[in-house]
Every structure is written in structure tokens, then in C-alpha cells.
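Appendix C reproduces, verbatim, an entry submitted by the partner laboratory led by Prof. M.T., so that reviewers can inspect both the input and the predicted structure.
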Amino acid sequence: MKKQILSILIVLSVTCSLPSCLRLDSNLFNNIKLDNYLLDASTSPQEITVDTSYNIPSGFIQQVALTSDDNGNKATIYGIYVGDVSRISSDTVIMYFHGTKGNMDYYWNREKILANAGGKNRFGVFMIDYRGYGMSEGKPTESGLHADANAAIEWLKNNGLAGDRLIVYGFSLGTAAATYYTANPTTLVPAKLILEAPFGSAAVMTNDATVLALPSSYFTSVKVDNAEEIKKVQQPFMWIHGINDDFLSIKTHGELVYKNYKGVYSEAHRVPAATHVNVPAVWGLDNYKAALEAFITR
């Protein structure tokens, strides 16, 4: 991460003056557009591979279109629900907010793993592409991210979900949506929160990445601050982080978020040898699924 951002700073310093164009906002949203979702048929690289035992019956895969309203800036965004939509009124559902890279095709195997936790389709799983990702309209922004999260949870509520059966799970960039929504719920109050490789804050990320003696506002206007938002969360909290995370350091990001949590129950899973992208695989998929099931059902 440090080398990546420093290289951007060097390029930008040659082409523009500080602070007018030295912004890392676009670096936080590494989105890829699509004309349609291919899921299992996608040939794009995956962070995590799974065998055919993780395949989902076609009748349990539903693509949905949602209207996300960011203070009047409306966009159609897309999601993939895995499970029986008619059972949302009784099922426990994992609302999964994916990371910064790619789109839902890229994270499809992760959704399939979650749908196999505790047995095939024991929990419903809903994943969305934020505006500007995949088939979703618009341009990714921080406020749009929060609007998109709310639109997804509104869809779940409209299909019968209650807050006591809502598990919010954020990975990487998705931890911003997950933490903020759980700390400031609108449509439903989540029952539990799971964060994998969370940001501490945009400011911490910038400080980690640059040796220049300038405030973080010179480098990004994004205000993501999971370390502060987590202080508002009272629900049970599960934190997962690879010890060798080379994108969001476990020491400066994950440990800070975990330390700041003041709620009723927390558990930490520091995964040896795992980096930013491969925690479930390095931990072992069976171990990962078992830990998720135990937390969700405790």
C-alpha cells in the first residue's frame, strides 16, 4: 500500500500543484464496469478459489435492481441475493459489503463461501455493487456508498427482514459502509457486525503511505473513520484481519478499530500469514465458516 500511494504522489507532483489535484479518492474506488454479471462463468481472476461443492442452485441466485438516493442524486444499483427470497421473512441474512476492487463477479466466490457457512444456504446472503461498480449506475463516492448500503437494507426490509436477523459484514472498503450503517442505522438496526481488514480511517491510511509532513486533507477528501464510528456500535462485533496485511496494516488499522469498540461483546481473529486478500483461504475455509457460524448463532 505504501509503495502504491507513494508512486501516485510522485506522478501527481510532476503534473499538478498541491493541494489542488493531489487527491487519492479515485484510488480508494478501484471499480470495474460490466454489461452483465457472469458469476460462475466469469473468467476474471478471483482472490479466492472454491470447488464445485460451493456452487449455489440457480433458483437460489437472484439479481435485483435497486434505486439508491444520495440526497437527490439517484442511481440504479445492482445486487445478488443468494438464498430463497420468500424466506427472508424468517431467515438470518448476511448483508455483505465487498472491497474496493472490481465488482460482484470478482467477489462471487466470497458470497458463495458465506452461503455455505453452517451448511448450504443456512443463511441468506446479499451483496451489492456500489454505484459505478459492475452494472450499477453513477460514480462512486463516499456519500453514495452510504446511500447504496441503505438502499440494500431497505430492499431486505421490504422483503420481510427484521433487524434481529440482520448480520452486517464489511470487507476492506466495505467496512466503511458496514461500520457507518451499524453505528448510524436508519432502516433496520443490525443484530451483529463483522469486519474483515477494516480501515482505521482515511487519515491513518494516508499517514501510513506518505512521509510528507502534510495533513491528510491534502491527499484525500474522503472522511472514512471506522475507528471513531465503531465507538457508537453496541452490537456484538467480530473482527478478522490477516497479520501480514500489506494493504491495510493490522497494527495501524485493524487493532485501532478493535481497541475502540466499547460494546457488549467482541472477538478478534488475527490470522497468521494471511494478507489483505486471502484471509478465508489461509485461515482454512472450514475454520472460517465455523467461526462465522459460531458468532452469528451465539
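Residues 5-24, 210-219 have pLDDT under 50 and may be disordered. Additional entries are available on request from the coordinating office.
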